[in-house]
# Entry
Amino acid sequence: MSLLDDFARTCVLMEKKRVPDGAGGYMVQWEEGAEFTNYQALDTSMEARIAEKQGVTSLYSALVDKDFPIEYNDVFKDTETGQTYRVTSNPEEKPAPKSSTLPLKYFTAEKWGLTT
# Structure
C-alpha cells in the first residue's frame, strides 16, 4: 500500500434530474452515476481557512484519474460516508505533470448538501 492509497475513497457522481411534480411544476431528483476513486484530503492551508471564514463549509483537495469526466460544479458522493461534495475548480486546468508516473488530475471541492 502507498500513502496515496490511504486517501482513496470510492465515490459516485450525482446526476441532477428534473421530473414533473404532479402539480404542473418540476422537482429535482438526484441519481447516482459513474463510480470513481477519489484521493481527497481536507485543505488546512491559510487560503482554505480564509474561505471558511467567508462561508465555505470545508475545502478539500482531491485527485482523480486524468481520464475521468469530472467537471467544475459537478456533485459527487462518498459511498462510505454518504457525504456529498461540489467541485469548486476546473480539474482540466490542473493535470499531473507529463513527467509524473501518476495519471491524475487535481481539483478542489467543498462539502455540499443536495438540494431538491
Summary: The chain has a mean pLDDT of 86.
